[in-house]
Amino acid sequence: MTNHRIALIPGDGIGTEVVPAARRVLDAVGARHGITFTYRSFDWSCERYLREGAMMPDDGLDQLREHDAILLGAVGYPGVPDHASLWGLLIPIRRGFQQYVNLRPIRVFEGVRSPLRTAEPGAVDFVVVRENVEGEYSEIGGRMNRGLPEEMAVQEAVFTRVGVNRVLDYAFGLAARRGGRLTSATKSNGIVHTMPFWDELVAERAAHHPGVSWDQEHIDALAAKFVLQPERFDVVVGSNLFGDILSDLAAAVAGSIGIAPSGNLNPTRDFPSMFEPVHGSAPDIAGRGVANPLGAIWSAALMLDHLGHPEAAAQVTDAIAAVLAKSTVRTGDLGGTASTEEFTTELLSVL
Ligand code: NAI
Ligand code: MG
Question: Quick one: which of 188, 180, 247, 254 has its CA closest to 217?
Fold first, then answer.
């Protein structure tokens, strides 16, 4: 028997509806594989921010540290600015725990309609690896002359050899375990300091991963190719900003924001990693029990894989594929009428 201590942060809105669904699936698949979970739930959220003035307590990271992984629903609440939730919870966890890889698998499943006419179910299956702790999202910069005609703002992008190399090594390693192909997102024609540095490091790291064939694309052309030829990709690696935009675009290509998962990984395992669906708190449908739980459930599968249980993880993703391909029971975003709970029960029936 292996036991894992899991921190649950359901958050706001539908986050509180999809995390329990993921937990049901974890318990069910765990029982088949001799894995148990000890959960501790945290009420950290925008609602807490409104009540107590902070998304999480001052010693929040210390409370999380003792866990093997974190499963998060979503944060966001009308009236709370998005930067409060991002900089008050998500970014402190990502940075404090050195979760320098943001992993976003994308698949067009049979039984899900992609908005792209050309996207064949099964053919689109790739992973976006986003650098998650430096790059364009830095705190370095400032504003001057506020309100004056001379007003100005400066925001510095930060690329370090250590920071870029480690995310590249992760991406090349992942490509070696998958289809053996890697595409690097760049813009070294327009951004003349950081992006040529990125490109040099890609070429350097590639030499350490001879089994992987690789190319690079400028971000604008790459965005077009995600739409025109999504089946050509295996692993795509990009900086924080490029990876952020590409992964949302890719989730849209796959047909439903409700399915897309993500992992914020600390590959060195010095700290817990955090897994969360890509979607937000969806205030428009929150409280009705109709949210698609698959994004949270697939995120839980990424967590299982990270915790060293690839067979259990594969069983969950196979069940996702099977329920989408074979069952008419599904939530409203996928054209059905099922509740979150009914859809989860249906998935458990094919697990
Ligand atoms: P959203 O992802 O919450 O919703 C976008 C649209 O997709 C809505 O129409 C929603 O009903 C639908 N949708 C999303 N997830 C769904 C699911 N599982 N099942 C069925 N339908 C689903 O994005 P939006 O509306 O831009 O943001 C809402 C709030 O969430 C904001 O406060 C935002 O800051 C926050 N947010 C939080 C994120 C996080 O926690 N990492 C990520 C994205 C947004
Ligand atoms: Mg995003």
Answer: 188
Q: pTM (2 decimals)?
A: 0.95
Residue range of the domain that includes 226:
114-254
Q: Are residues 192 and 215 in the same domain?
A: yes
Task: Please give the radius of gyration of the chain, using alpha carbons only, rounded to the nearest integer.
Answer: 20
Distance 283 CA to ligand 1 centre (A): 7
Pick the ligand that lies closest to the CA of residue 247.
Answer: 2
Q: How far does the centroid of ligand 2 lie from the alpha carbon of residue 246, in Å?
A: 9
Pairing relationship of beta strands 101-107 and 69-74 according to DSSP bridges: unpaired
Ligand 1 pocket, residue 284 CB under 6 Å = yes
Which atom from ligand 1 is nearest to the alpha carbon of 279? 2
Co-location of 313 and 248 in the same domain: no
Nearest CA-CA partner of 125 in 108, 102, 103, 110: 108
Last residue in a domain, options 235, 254, 273: 254
Residue 294 phi, psi dihedral angles, 5° rounding:
-65, -35
Name the helix (H) or strand (E) containing 181: strand 181-186
Closest-CA residue to 313 (of 78, 1, 30)? 30
CA triple 64-70-76, angle to 5 deg: 95
Q: What percent of the chain shows pLDDT beyond 70?
A: 100
Q: Rounded to 5 degrees, what angle do the CA atoms 269, 272, 275 make?
A: 115
Residues paired with residue 262 on neighbouring β-strands, in sequence order:
276
| 46, 281, 337, best to mutate for ligand 1 pocket (most atoms within 8 Å of CB) | 281
pLDDT per position as a tens digit, 56-108: 999 999 999 999 999 999 999 999 998 899 899 999 999 999 999 999 999 99
Q: Whose atoms come closest to the Cα of 292: which ligand?
A: 1
Specify if 107 maps to a domain. no
152-180 pLDDT tens trace: 999 999 999 999 999 999 999 999 999 99
341 φψ region: left (φ > 0), alpha (ψ -120 to 50), beta (else): alpha
* Nearest ligand (C-alpha, residue 281): 1
